[in-house]
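Working notes for the structural subgroup meeting. M.R. asked for a predicted model of this chain before we commit to crystallization trials. I am recording the input and output together here so anyone reviewing the notebook later can reproduce the run.

Input as submitted:
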Amino acid sequence: WKAQTQILIRPLSFLIKTKTITKRSQKRSQKRERQLSRSRQLLGYHKITDMFTMNAPFLKHREACTPLLAPATADKQKRTKRALHMSRKGKEISYLVGLFTVSTILLQLFILKNVSCTWPEDPVRSIMQIMHAEVVRSIMHAEVDVSVIILTYKKHLALAKLLPSVLQQKKCKFEIIIADNGCLEDTRKVIDGTFGDHDTDAQPRPPLKYLPLCDNPGYAKGNNAAVALASPTSERLLFLNDDIVLGSPRFIYNMVRLLKSKETAAAVGCKILNSNGTELIEAGSLIWDDASALGYGRGRTDINATEFSFTKPVDYVSGACLLVEKKVFEDYAGFDGVLFPNYYEDTDLQMHIQHDLGKEVWLEPNSVALHDEHGSFGDTDSTNLMQNAAEIFRAKWREALKDRHIANPWNRDKEQQKKSLFLASDLRARDPTKANIFFIDDKAPNKSRGSGFGRAFDNLSMISELGHRITLVTLYPPSENYWCDESCLDKIARLGIEYETRKSWEEVFQSRIGFYDVVVVSRPDTLKRTFRKLREFYGQSPFSLIYDSEALSFLRDEKQDDLVNGPTGIPFPGYGEIFMPNIRSELRHVVLKARRNTEIALLSFADTVLAVSGGEKKHISKLSPKTKDIEVIGHIMGLEHVRASGGSVSGRNGILCVASFANSMYYNGDAIWYFLKYVYPLVIAGSKLSSIRIPHLTIAGRGIPDELLKVVNANDIIAPHVTFLESPPTLDALYASNRLFISPHLYGAGIQYKVSQLEASLVFRI
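Returned structure, recorded in token form:
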């Protein structure tokens, strides 16, 4: 895929800049990694008694860990000395060792895996808190994929809304870890009341772990302590504020699915609305070069607008709902509660993911949460805390902010502000090594519809995988004739493609003049209807035009005309859909010639022309010698198309035709009509003469025209042996049970997608 689609950005070579990382950033990243590695080696393999007593091995290397530890206040130093004094007398030792014999697994997890130099300054107190963690339900370490971390502080009413929305989650294995920074009796009552003593639902409830941290260590340290209780099988951590509510039963599943599907992703966030769901808080968030931040779309009431409804990489997502790879979190030693005790700790982690690891943070708009924003501190306090944290954040990430983030546009006019917001909302849009692509097609690329739309979907998928930003527009809305349903739209959005369905393509392009580097137009009819306006837009801001011919459609019409009016004289029913009955031959030839000349002229209009096969490329080269850049992008068949393993070929008996008819006899309908009328009766007769079983014919497709049913019903010879299947939900059983497959290609151009599917299926075909 990548080799084939690299040609889509060749016309943009003068725009593509090399992405580099400064030596300073490399040295800073390497230095921090050495510090973390050394501290883990020093702390991770000491004997358990060494950690409890704080004796020589730990004290000897405490100075080496100083860069990662907060300076202890005088009061904390006194408490540490008292703890050491108590441990020397053996009082704490005896208590902890006794608990260790009961909780061996928990201690091993804490000491050997999760201890690092960023742990709270009083190790004895921290271990005591972890030891009091309560496994409320099920086993200590269940087989789960996700650990849901909920930090709560004296908000039992909000927690009572959140927990049921978590328990309703489906299609994923997860555990719930509640870190209680307030330890109210009402909080515990909410937890007990929500979970109860027994599973009452059809779906078993997840394991629950409860960790009391009653002195309120803060957001970062509270979450870090909760992560220490995560099951070893858990690969991902989902941090949730206690004042949000998950919007759907597939909330967690959608986020995990996106994180798994993107090789470059290390974290995922959700779309967040206000508490009553009427206003957007964020669909991903922006960070300007001055370290100020903004939730994209904040205050907008059009919460389902296209720009908020597709997956994309962003600067960061709110820590109120943050899914992150567990290994990434642990390698960074968790949230930095020393520098960022209240705000920016989540943003700091995500800056590390992007600028130190070279990974990405993605938005999953299908996961929607309701958030009682700033419920933890109140609006005034929250603003002050944010401002203080922003100063520290700006100092820490000064170089990355300067090199990779956009200047704050608030001193500019409204039009410039709008453009800067849009550019900053998607990391791909401002990446100099990627192209912003405007893709125009006739209809939505629904793979189940045939007619070349499967190839269009694959092309979009490949371009997206290469990391380019795509805006898709279609001349016909997806709702027309139920062409593209919710499932189809979801597949497009999950590719990371913005599919604009509410505005005309001219309106979208005009509002973003200068933004797009490449325009891709698919199919001859589409380019016919758009090239005049595209030429006008080009005059305002140049771009490269790629024309995907898909197939030379005029060749199809000329072949059909030859078959109908030539020596064969085949009366195709679909011919009347192209020409009026009894049309004069002179006028017919004029129409065909005009179509040919128009398509040839379109070929010369583009910078690059895409053909579906080598044969089509040769045709284009002969028809349009001035078109120099012609590339071939055929059909990409994955392993899912290989169905030959579905039983022995010798055990199969049947003929299958799969086609998209759309209630029309033109092309596919004419081919099957010809087979039913002139070929299949001979197959039946030959089978009877040879005393072999007559192969049954199955015709499956969408919008099977009545004309075909009439042909079958009018012929008593073939009627008992033909079955029509309208829009079957799956084709797997049909592919596995039939021996011969028909591809309707009697008169045609290009290569049909189904032909490539049959090639991949390793089956007999005609």
